[in-house]
Backbone:
């Protein structure tokens, strides 16, 4: 099953892709400044759940305030960027999580 989604990625000074999502997302996460350094030092951070269960029509926003790029499951969020995604079909998205090295972040999308 392939999950289809609408994505916006923006920097503070420009919009890289556009979408109709302009209000608050259903699930919002912030990667604070210094996260990469804390991860390098071996600190275990609890910013994202291991599994996020969402429904079609809901959205996620990830704000990366760190000075490093991060891979969050199926999403790449560059330093200083914000990613917003609306889920438009059921399925599963999973991938590595750079904030928890050696682990993954999975989003399960239900009807």
Residues:
């Amino acid at each position: 099953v392939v999950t289809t989604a609408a994505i916006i990625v923006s920097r503070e000074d420009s919009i890289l892709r556009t979408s109709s999502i302009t209000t608050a997302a259903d699930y919002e996460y912030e990667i604070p400044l210094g996260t990469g350094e804390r991860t390098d030092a071996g600190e275990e951070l609890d910013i994202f759940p291991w599994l996020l269960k969402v429904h079609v029509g809901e959205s996620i926003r990830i704000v990366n305030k760190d000075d490093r790029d991060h891979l969050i499951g199926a999403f790449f969020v560059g330093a200083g960027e914000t990613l917003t995604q609306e889920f438009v079909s059921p399925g599963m998205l999973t991938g590595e999580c750079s904030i928890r090295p050696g682990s993954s972040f999975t989003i399960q999308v239900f009807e």
User: Anything to note?
Assistant: The CA atoms of residues 38 and 44 lie 8 Å apart. The longest strand covers residues 103-110. DSSP finds one helix and nine strands in the chain. Confidence is low (pLDDT under 50) at residues 1-20.
